[in-house]
Amino acid sequence: MRTLGIIFSILILCGVGSYYAYEYVKQKPPTFLVNLVTKTAKPAPPLPQGDIAPFEAPEGFTTTIFSRETPGARVMTRDDGGMMLVSLTKDGKIVALPDTDANGVADHTVVVLEGLQQPHGILVQCEEGACLLYVAETGELKSYTYDPLAFTATYKETLTTFPTGSGHFTRTLLMHPDGKRLLISVGSSCNVCEEKDERRATVLALDLATKEVTTFASGLRNTVFMATEPVTGEVWGTDHGRDLIGDDIPPDEVNILTEGKDYGWPLCYGKNIHDTDFDNKTYIRDPCADKTPSHIDLQAHSAVLGIAFIPEEGWGEDMRLDMLVAYHGSWNRKEPTGYKVVRFDLDESRNAIGGPIDFLTGFLAPGAPAKESLGRPVDILVEPGGVAYVSDDRAGAIYRISKNTAD
């Protein structure tokens, strides 16, 4: 009997230990485990020779390869002279991509900065001929004096620091519509948890005059990209839902980011749905009642990234002022999802009419495993004249989607 008691006690201890181990892994998956799933994919196959990209765009558009020399390409921006700058996060570089003959293909790659720590967000601001380049590394935001003719940048100052360590490491920039503050996204340190550092899972605001940093919006698990909506002037952002709860929940989100609002994470997701898998306490009132719901729910685990709005000039009436969103692609779903750029038709009130419409596809063949993807779209840069650019950190390329002149 004593032996049975010992065995029973051991089984109970193993069961309790397994439960708490599972709960811990679910909240903060170890890096080695995430790497085991996400980094075993074989390298992307080389892009085909020539200018044409192997992807499908809407009828009347052509997709070409603007640059194939941008490994780990993430954020794209233009300086005041029209030069495209790109952050190569993994390589720790910021590069310029001149296209001096305006043929839609970058002539070469110019290194503007190197030796950085996971640079992501980049932004150029010029006043009276003097330009500053802002670069958001994983642990700090720096400004550089930027020469748009020589494509050089000289360190000026460190404006603020960010929490580092485990979790989401990208920091992305957007100039607030007031022109006085820089918005900075700082993702969570975990899959789902109560943060100890209040700067995590937020969008911060840096006052450029006083250098004061405040919390602009909170409860945002990982708002990697933001954009200014052209009709209302509001700030919109894409946000990643948590993992390890199901194939189709919780949704990824598009949020309208309003100063002072809490968007619910880690307690709530989507349209203020309570995450009882993480928080199973009993409440007298709904804990999500005072949170701000998502504006648009997206397919879970799409890993939504870039967001951009289509201008009116040079685009067809069916697309003008619509929203483009990049789905980087799932890593923990039985059937892979994402791996494309989609368009949302928005009405006059800026609500989505129906679901996503494919805009750029072909990154992953139907039924193929994620490791066989040709690439993973990241950022979107949309310009007048029917032209858009998409960065791809898997294939290390920038694609150009252009409206055919005959249309």
Backbone shape: globular
Report mean pLDDT, rounded to a whole number: 92
- CATH topology value: Neuraminidase
Largest sheet: 4 strands, antiparallel
Give the domain tally: 1
Number of DSSP E strands? 26
What secondary-structure arrangement, pairings included, does this model have?
Elements: H1 2-27, H2 31-38, E1 61-67, E2 73-78, E3 84-88, E4 93-97, E5 110-113, E6 121-127, E7 130-136, E8 140-147, E9 152-161, E10 171-175, E11 181-186, E12 202-207, E13 213-218, E14 226-228, E15 235-239, E16 252-257, E17 268-269, E18 273-274, E19 296-298, E20 304-309, E21 323-327, E22 340-344, E23 357-360, E24 377-383, E25 387-392, E26 397-403
Antiparallel strand pairs: 1-26, 2-3, 3-4, 4-5, 6-7, 7-8, 8-9, 10-11, 11-12, 12-13, 14-15, 15-16, 16-19, 17-18, 20-21, 21-22, 22-23, 24-25, 25-26
Notes on the structure:
There is one protein chain. The protein has 407 residues and is mainly beta. It has a single domain (52-403), classed as Neuraminidase (6 Propeller), CATH 2.120.10. It has helices at 2-27, 31-38; strands spanning 61-67, 73-78, 84-88, 93-97, 110-113, 121-127, 130-136, 140-147, 152-161, 171-175, 181-186, 202-207, 213-218, 226-228, 235-239, 252-257, 268-269, 273-274, 296-298, 304-309, 323-327, 340-344, 357-360, 377-383, 387-392, 397-403. A hairpin with a 5-residue loop joins strand 2 (73-78) and strand 3 (84-88). Mean pLDDT is 92; it is low at 14-24.
